[in-house]
Design goal:
single chain, 317 residues, alpha+beta, six-stranded mixed beta sheet, four-stranded antiparallel beta sheet, 11 helices, 41% helix, DNA-binding transcription factor activity
């Protein structure tokens, strides 16, 4: 399965089944399960979760995505620490999922006449069993929206179905970009820039400034900013602030930390500055952002509460 990925048709929206945000107790291990027709998607939030799927063992860390297909037994092979957490989501494809060649997908993505191959990939999502998302803000927010809508008794079940489909499209988008990047040979300049961006990501919880980043990589601050504008269309400080605010949104969505605690954790100079910056960038306050997603199911006992499969999804394909 290493060179095969899942191809799931989305010409009709994927069917939502159940979901939650799990927070583990001390020495918790995932119970043994076998899915009948649904897939389970797990996205790591805090610390590590250890799950074996068939004969393969995975350590799921924050930002890791595990897609578990039906018909394969899976279970926790090692206990997690208290507070380890992840999003979990069960969904049904409307059309039977099939495996697809990773090489074939790469060829479609890299083809010079990509539009001639668009029909082959435009109507499906493509995901491996396991990969790490590069940018977690959109998947985390979409999962939070799914939890909110699923527990808000919307008149139409399609509301959450479309959100699930949007989440899988976002994950596919990030996975495809990773595939393309892995097949190209970056220039020395692009490699250097990638190192700078990665260094900022790793140190995003620190009190970063443009001069510190420039000095670390022996750049002139103005030259560094020109480099950022050329590569990603924004200044160095805007990129730093954007990344910090992405982390802030993740913390607002996935923790109960106060605005002041989040501001302190991300090394903003004070709580008021953080709130002002958030409002300038996002158009709403941190509290308004958090209050938008109130209907969230968080479980600490069982990752998979017993919910009967809806009758319209339980029949044979």
């Amino acid at each position: 399965m290493m060179d095969l990925i899942w191809k799931i048709n989305i010409e009709r929206p994927l069917a939502y089944f159940k979901s939650g945000q799990f927070v583990s107790a001390e020495d918790w291990k995932h119970k043994e399960m076998l899915l009948s027709k649904d897939f389970e998607l797990i996205i790591g939030l805090q610390q590590s979760i250890y799950i074996q799927v068939g004969n393969l063992q995975y350590e799921i860390q924050p930002g890791d995505v595990l897609l578990i297909p039906p018909g394969v037994r899976y279970f926790g092979y090692y206990p997690s620490q208290k507070g380890a957490s992840f999003f979990w989501l069960h969904f049904f494809p409307r059309v039977e999922a099939v495996t697809y060649s990773k090489e074939k997908l790469i060829n479609h993505l890299m083809a010079s006449e990509i539009n001639t191959h668009k029909a082959a990939i435009n109507n499906s999502i493509f995901l491996p069993d396991f990969f790490r998302v590069t940018f977690t803000d959109k998947p985390f927010i979409l999962m939070k929206q799914i939890l909110d809508i699923a527990n808000a008794s919307y008149y139409s079940t399609f509301a959450v179905d479309y959100l699930v489909t949007e989440l899988l499209i976002e994950l596919t988008e990030q996975y495809q970009k990773q595939l393309l990047q892995s097949t190209t040979n970056p220039s020395e300049n692009s490699q250097k820039f990638a190192q700078i961006v990665e260094w900022i990501r790793v140190n995003i919880y620190e009190d970063l400034c443009v001069k510190e980043v420039a000095d670390t990589f022996s750049f002139n601050p103005d030259h560094l900013t020109r480099l950022f504008k050329k590569n990603i269309g924004m200044s160095t400080i805007k990129y730093i602030n954007t990344l910090k605010l992405k982390k802030a949104k993740e913390l607002l969505c996935t923790t109960n930390k106060s605005i002041k605690e989040i501001s302190y954790e991300l090394n903003f100079k004070d709580e008021k500055y953080f709130m002002k910056l958030f409002k300038n960038y996002e158009g709403i306050t941190p509290s308004q952002f958090r209050d938008a997603y109130t209907h969230t199911y968080i479980n600490t006992i069982s990752v998979d509460p017993d919910i009967p499969i809806p009758s319209h999804l339980s029949h044979s394909s």
